[in-house]
Amino acid sequence: MRPPSFKTKSFVSEEEAFAYIRTIYEAQRAYLREAFEAFTCGDLKDKKVAGFYPFLRIHAEQAQRTDNRWSYGFVSKSGIYETTLTRTDIFGRYYQNQIGLLLKNHGGKIEIGLSDTPMPLHFALGEDFHLERDLSAAQIKTLSQIFDQPDLDIMDDQIANGTYQASENGVMPLALFTAPRTDLSLMRLKHYTGTRAAHFQNYVIFTNYQFYIDEFIEIGRGLEGRAKGNGYTEFVEPGEGQVLSRMPQMPAYHLKRPDGSGITMVNIGVGPSNAKTITDHIAVLRPHAWLMLGHCAGLRNSQSLGDYVLAHAYLREDNILDNDLPSSIPLPALSEIQLSLEQAVAEVTGYEGYDLKKIMRTGTVATVDDRNWELRSSVRQNIRFSQSRAIALDMESGTIAANGFRFRVPYGTLLCVSDKPLHGQLKLPGMADNFYRERVEQHLKIGLRTMEILREIRPEKLHSRKLRSFNEVAFQ
């Protein structure tokens, strides 16, 4: 067996460039799969087998863009920029769009070729394959001697975190994520959510309660066999039609549209660790927006159970992202998201203008990593909350917003007050059950309507320049 070789070629068309990317990727992936098949049959002995990702490169003579309102699609200074690419079945539309913008803004040509970054066997086989299941102990032992394995040294988030150092040849990154980093997340998404990455849509809602998911399932299943509303054509649940023996850790549900502009909803459970885990991986799919819909503790006496909280700022005491994005870095409110959420609340509830203040407050949401925060000393906890002017507290919103900021994904939070511990209204079984019945349906309708409004805004207007750093990558 011989690995397929490819010459580096130049293109002035995004369609032709992508066709060559796909040819390279599929040939390398097929070669590794065929080699693995031979290995399982005992035909490969002590022969190193390697496949490689395709790369995309641009030589930019100068920094320029045809429309300075856009936040992506161009490089920030002259130089050579490059990235590796993967999963053309998932990222076809995305890659063509990004290449088209580079050609539009910088002219010249795009170079496509075979990189020197190995494609690990696990990633070539894909998320539906259990690599070790049918191998003997001896084969598992020799596997790493023949095939490349995932290498964590090239799968970090230096680019996204702004700590990336250009290589000795001065080549700079074109995208936030390399191909191996992307492939790792695609594999993890199947593990955590019970659905393949290909089903994820560009508008994502996170929640911390199954009640919201139950309501979303009812809406999604209602589309089957009927005229599809709002262009939705399919509803995909964990297991993708197969009965699961147990639910995944963070199950995902997808209300799909053919162009990927549908809505995905994920039950992330409780806590900032889960919030970081899932957003770390969904970020590689480059969604156009993600929102947090969930419950919170109201911190003001003027609030009532069932009131809404629209986060304009976050007091981040979750600690989960301290090494990547220190809590001292502010998270800006994004006007497109905030206005869309407010509009959706008005449409669904019937309150408008000044009357919205009767059921909704805007302000700072505190995010903590301790579910039993109420048991802390009241003096110690209340001073911090009061100084920050916080109006609500939860365990996930600050993390989701921070990772949105970190990964350049437009973010927002709309919470519903389910208890007021500082004022003696604790979340207890009877009270909670009644609250869930009354508020979940309305809250979810607001979230879905918000996503429809954001979809109408269009991605080029939605992706904010506020999220882009000084020397930003060109890819959205």
Using DSSP, what is the number of strands?
A: 14
Radius of gyration: 24 Å
Structural class: alpha/beta
Order of helices and strands: EHEEHEHHHEHEHEEEHEEHEHEHEHH
Tell me the helix content: 25-40%
Number of helices: 13
What's the end-to-end separation, in Å? 38 Å
How many domain regions? 2
Quick synopsis:
By secondary structure, this protein is α/β, with parallel strands linked by helices. 36% of the residues lie in helices and 19% in strands.
Describe the structure.
The chain is α/β, with parallel strands linked by helices and 476 residues long. The protein has two domains: 9-186, amp nucleosidase, domain 1; 194-467, Nucleoside phosphorylase domain (Rossmann fold, 3-Layer(aba) Sandwich). 36% of the residues lie in helices and 19% in strands. The chain is built from 13 helices and 14 strands. A five-stranded mixed β-sheet has the order 1-4-2-3-5. A five-stranded mixed β-barrel has the order 10-13-12-11-14, surrounded by four helices. It is globular. The mean pLDDT is 90.
Task: Write a concise keyword list for the protein shown above.
single chain; amp nucleosidase, domain 1; 13 helices; five-stranded mixed beta barrel; about 35% helix; globular; about 475 residues; five-stranded mixed beta sheet; alpha/beta; 2 domains
Give the topology, please.
Elements: E1 9-11, H1 14-40, E2 52-60, E3 79-84, H2 88-106, E4 110-118, H3 121-125, H4 137-146, H5 158-161, E5 172-173, H6 179-193, E6 203-207, H7 210-221, E7 234-236, E8 252-256, E9 263-267, H8 272-282, E10 289-298, E11 308-317, H9 335-349, E12 360-368, H10 378-388, E13 390-394, H11 397-406, E14 411-419, H12 429-457, H13 459-462
Parallel strand pairs: 3-5, 6-9, 6-10, 10-14, 11-12, 12-13
Antiparallel strand pairs: 1-4, 2-3, 2-4, 7-8, 8-9, 10-13, 11-14
Helix pairs in contact: 1-2, 6-8, 7-12, 8-11, 9-12
